[in-house]
Amino acid sequence: MSEKTKDVLEWIYCIIIAVALALIIRYFVGTPTVVQQPSMFPTLQSGQRLILNRFTVRVSKKMPERGQIVTFEAPIKNYITTEEYDPENPIALYDDESRGFFGRFVNNVLEIGKTSYIKRVIGLPGEHVQIIDGKVYINNEELQETYLQDNVVTESLGGLFTDLYVPENCLFLMGDNRSQSTDSRRFGCIPFDKIEGVVAIRFWPFNLFGKVE
């Protein structure tokens, strides 16, 4: 083998290792993301840049806490109709089986063509979530949502998931901008394995750098 061929192979090996490490860090540790939706306004605004903590979800397998902001894979249907609604199974719809191994790798690891949403954790597994008269109740007690603006009310927005028990290993998620958020009220609870990460810090704009609450 010539010296030139050895050099080329070394470069190829280095590139493969670098790409593999980048994917491992992105999938298991953390990654930057950009806010592109108005559903978390004014807590988060379009164009702001965040760092996601993926370690707690991917490695520690820790369920996010109520009040934390998370990103997750968007379900295949943003609105469940009356005909599709199953009160015994209030879980958002996904179509993993049709993708195959390579399709799941592209979607989950490379995240090519993947749509993600960003919302706040409202209901935890086993909890009774109700939306009544513009307010949220957890296990029959009104949820104190200090992160919302004073004039915000929580309506169903035509969604059917307004009185349910959150299934095991699932979360009930809503945006802070309740009137402009497509969330669990419309598509149901999100399985834990669809949660991508917990918002750790906002790093842009610089004047708002820090933890997001």
Characterise this structure:
The chain is α+β, with helices and mostly antiparallel strands. It has a single domain, classed as Umud Fragment, subunit A (Ribbon), CATH 2.10.109. The strands form two sheets. Strands 1, 2, 3, 4, 9, 10, 11 and 12 form an eight-stranded antiparallel sheet that branches. 28% of the residues are buried. The model has no long low-confidence stretch (mean pLDDT 90).
Q: What's the short story on this structure?
A:
With 213 residues, this protein is α+β, with helices and mostly antiparallel strands.
Features:
Umud Fragment, subunit A
Shape: globular
Q: What name does the CATH topology carry?
A: Umud Fragment, subunit A
Terminal Cα span: 58 Å
Q: How large is the share of residues in beta strands?
A: 25-35%
Looking at the overall shape, the CATH architecture is Ribbon
What order do the helices and strands come in, and which of them pair?
Elements: H1 3-28, E1 30-34, E2 49-53, H2 55-58, E3 69-73, H3 100-110, E4 116-123, E5 128-132, E6 135-138, E7 141-142, E8 163-165, E9 170-174, H4 184-187, E10 190-191, E11 195-204, E12 210-211
Antiparallel strand pairs: 1-2, 2-11, 3-4, 3-11, 4-9, 5-6, 5-8, 6-7, 9-10, 11-12
